[in-house]
Design a protein that fits this description.
- The chain has five helices and nine strands.
- It is of the alpha/beta class and 203 residues long.
- The chain has a single domain, classed as Rossmann fold, CATH 3.40.50.150.
- The longest helix has 13 residues.
- The radius of gyration is 16 Å and the shape is globular.
Length: 203
Amino acid sequence: MSDHYFTPHPQSDHQPARFSFHYRGQTLFFDTDSGVFSRLGVDKGSQCLLNALPETMAGAVLDMGCGYGAIGLSLAKVYPSCSVTLSDVNRRAVHLAAANARGNGLFVRTLMGDGFTALCGDRFHFILFNPPIRAGKQVIYRMFADAAHHLHTGGQFWLVVRKRQGAPSAVACLQAYFNQVEAADKSGGYWVLRCTIPRTEEV
């Protein structure tokens, strides 16, 4: 049986691949492998998320569930003033993300951990998330709640969810943790959601 991309220690045989990716005037090269999500190219959901983000970004950025680093490294390349952290439960993905950072001349922090467990009390101005739908709603919704506790005041939680894979129910869940949940983009069957003002700030 093949590994899920949220498997901590993939056992699948290596199938390395390499491709280039263009984002906001910059070109990056990604090395990938079996056992990680979308190994042959940046998936459509991540592209929708990247394209919907603000034209200018600064501060501490977290790419949660980073895979081989498509989202976080793209932002590090385009916005060098950002301090980017990439985290994933998948050891192979984290190793690839670190190698891809070096290969693209980028200085980022890479961490291996289940959800937000490796981040302790760290807070971010932007948290970006392309959730592993196959992990199930219980896992993903817990991470929605954790994201609310890891934002700086005024921070933003961005995520992308396919409409037919539960985007409307994700919105309903997110509204329990954030005062503002809005769709920044709806295209190609994907919803890009921007969540601000965590309800934790009311306490």
